[in-house]
Write a structure and sequence with these properties.
9 helices, about 250 residues
Length: about 250
C-alpha cells in the first residue's frame, strides 16, 4: 500500500515581504538595519521537536504492508488481518488439499474471501474469513497475521443455504451433498453421524485421509471405493489406512 507523504517538515517558511514590492519605506528600514546583527530564520516545528528530544510524529506512522527499510510493523495476533490476498502464502498442508476432489476451494475463492468475506475471531483457530456464494460458505483460516508474512492455513466449505445452493448454477445435487457430508464429518471427528449421512447421495468420490468416499441414499455410512471399508465418523476414516492404495 503506497503511503501518501507531505512535505519534509524542515522546509523554512518564506520570510515576510519576500513577495512584496519594495517601497521607499521598506528601503529606508533596510538601510537602518544594515549594520544590525542578522536575525536567524524562524525555527520549524520539526526542528523544535528534535531540539526538545521529541521525534517527528510522522515517523510513528507506517503502512501495515509497506514497512520502512524491512522493519516489522508492531502488530498482535488479535489485530484484524490485512485484506490484501497477495501478501498471504499458502501452507503445504493447504496446497495439498487444493488438489483433492470434493474440496471446492480454490485460490480464487481464497482471494475473494480475504478481500470481501466476513471476518471472525475463533479462540481455537484464530482469524477466519467467511464468504457465502451460491448458498455455500467458504471459510479460510489464516495465521501469522501479526507479521509481514501471513499464511493461509486451511479452508473448507459449508452449506449455508441448501435451497439457494441447489438453485445456483455452479452446484448440482451431488456437490451440495458432498459439501454437507464432509462438513458433518469434520464438525465432531469422533462422533458417528449415520443420521446425517443417510439422506445424502454422493456418487463422485471425495477424499478424506487415504480414502475415496461415496454414499448412497439410505446408507448410514460412507464407503471407500478403493478398499471397500465403511465409516460413520471422520476419526474412523483417518485412523485406518486404505489397504489397496497403500500397497500401490
Amino acid at each position: 500500500m503506497a503511503s501518501r507523504q507531505g512535505g519534509s517538515g524542515d522546509a523554512e517558511p518564506l520570510g515576510p515581504g519576500s513577495t512584496e514590492r519594495r517601497t521607499a519605506s521598506t528601503t529606508a528600514a533596510a538601510s537602518r538595519d544594515a549594520g544590525a546583527r542578522p536575525r536567524s530564520p524562524p525555527e520549524s516545528p520539526a526542528r523544535r521537536r528534535a531540539r526538545a528530544g521529541r521525534p517527528d510524529r510522522a515517523a510513528d506512522y507506517r503502512p501495515v504492508d509497506s514497512p520502512s527499510r524491512g522493519e516489522s510493523v508492531t502488530r498482535t495476533p488479535t489485530d484484524p488481518p490485512v485484506r490484501d490476498p497477495s501478501l498471504y502464502a499458502l501452507t503445504d498442508h493447504f496446497r495439498e488439499r487444493l488438489e483433492q476432489p470434493g474440496r471446492y476451494v480454490s485460490t480464487r475463492t481464497v482471494s475473494d474471501a480475504i478481500r470481501e468475506g466476513q471476518l471472525r475471531w475463533n479462540s481455537t483457530d484464530g482469524w477466519r474469513f467467511a464468504l457465502v456464494e451460491g448458498g455455500v460458505r467458504f471459510v479460510v483460516v489464516v495465521s501469522d497475521t501479526e507479521t509481514n508474512s501471513p499464511v493461509v492455513v486451511t479452508g473448507w466449505t459449508e452449506v449455508a443455504d441448501r435451497e439457494a445452493a441447489l438453485e445456483a448454477s455452479r452446484w448440482d445435487g451431488v456437490d451440495v451433498d458432498t459439501i454437507a457430508v464432509r462438513a458433518a464429518l469434520s464438525e465432531s471427528a469422533s462422533t458417528p453421524i449415520p443420521d446425517r449421512i443417510r439422506p445424502r447421495t454422493v456418487t463422485r468420490p471425495f477424499e478424506v485421509g487415504e480414502h475415496r468416499l461415496e454414499t448412497a441414499p439410505g446408507d448410514p455410512f460412507v464407503r471407500c471405493t478403493v478398499c471397500g471399508c465403511r465409516f460413520r465418523s471422520k476419526e474412523a476414516i483417518t485412523s485406518r489406512r486404505c489397504r489397496n492404495r497403500s500397497s500401490d
